[in-house]
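Q: How would the structure tokens look for this protein?
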Amino acid sequence: MLKIYRRLKPYSLQIAAITALVFLQVLADLYLPTVMSDIIDNGIMKEDVGYIWHEGLYMLLISGCGAACAVLASFLSSKVAMGLGRNLRNDIFEHIESFSLAEFDRFGSSTLVTRTTNDIVQIQTVTIMILSMILRAPIMYTGGVILAYSKDRRLTTLLLIVLPFVAVIIYLVAKFVIPLFRQVQKKIDKLNLVLTENLKGIRVIRAFNREAHEKKRFARANGDLTGTYIRVNRILALLMPAMMLLMEALMVGILWFGALRIDAGEMDLGALVAFLQYAMQIMFALVIMTMMFIMIPRAQAAADRVNEVLGTEPSIRDVPEERAACSGRGFVEFDRVSFRYQGAEEPALKDVSFRVKPGETTAIIGGTGSGKTTLVNLIPRFYEVESGRVLVDGVDVRKLPQEELRAKIGFVPQKAVLFTGSVADNLRYGKDDANEEELLHAAQVAQADGFISGMEAGFGTMLSEGGLNLSGGQKQRLAIARAILRKPEIYVFDDSFSALDFKTDAKLRAALRKETGNATVIIVAQRVGSVMNADRIIVLDEGSVAGIGTHRELLRTCKVYREIVSSQLSQEEMA
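A: Here is the predicted structure in token form.
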């Protein structure tokens, strides 16, 4: 929590104002029983109506000032807490943006969403309590004890008898509730994961009639979370009755012994009434502090999770050192590269070496799980190599600023990703300042101009979340157009033509060859027909290079390639 609250430094003036307002409110609350005591002893007992009116109006004035201070303190507390939440969300989002894919693999999207939303709400809630209520409790408790002691020393010993019971209640509640709060946050993560998977996979779920299975899976996660919440609330349900029992027992004790002292002439009625008020304020302060011991552990669990994200250093960082100038434009080289995913026993790539240059089309083919996508993900440095080097324009990608490196690359991922917004907005992800002529040209090369012109608003047509109002082939073509619009040195197509029919595929490749004549083109493909005309084909098998050459060369020299070709083409087509 301390790390989180260091971010409150910009709100120092507001916090100082809140402290002053709370202090004034507590002073007003503590002063009122003294005035009431005077009214009883000097007004009511002496039947002085003028004195009662005078002091009564004075009490109203003090109460009004206290109420105004309370309202202002609550307003400023809410403003500070909301500002802290806003800043935390911004900081988490910006920090997550610097993560490599390894960090995303480690956390998962569902827990990152929970930490950015629910966890920060918990921190905001407890911040409001600390500033508006918990800050008030110690002042009220200390002042109440001092003033109660000044009214009657012997009755004050009753307060000391109650304190051990309060301490036991706080200890027992904290002991059982804190571990449950930590479980709650993890189970919210699980619930979000199930819900996210259900929403993303709704087509598959319905296609396989698995709605009942998903309902059961969600019900289990929801029931698990609900059960934990119920256990928490059962424990907390004992808190207020226990505190009220102690408070009422204390009131009875004060009235009993106070009446005896009044009867003996050792205490005034007004002093007893004031002492009762101070005792109630002291108990109220103890109730607030008890709530603090409940709320803060939950906020602490949330703060730990937020700090875990903010404290995670990205595994891929720009190296602030001088580097050699890039030699050439569009050269890519893998020099004895090996790579292993976090926690994996076997490397995904083993001792991969090859070199591609501008003006060439290099295709990467291989069986499922052979490492094709992993290989192209290393070029824009989405992951860090385990050993060896990936060089772009003669420079190790680890020595290139990530922004500069990725500006050289037009990357089309295996799964076409589109964002909520217009078609033009999505294409301009490739180039912010692209004009309509450039948009149209990129769409024509990607064979997307036909279906875009058929839309009611053309390039202004709004896409739904993830482009759900488009077909798979349309989404792929827009993703390709986005990369073309960038006019990069290096084009990387990760199985980006799989959803296209053969006619559209052929047209797109023909237009692409003219557009990318001076650039380096790297294509990951499953279909042999898509790579036969490539200048170079790299065959991967279980993470290793099984062969490099043209289609005809590999048919003669590479057994793995022949098996792939024979599984897709007839003998006549192979010839």
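The mean pLDDT is 85.

The CA atoms of residues 35 and 59 lie 7 Å apart.

Upvote if useful.
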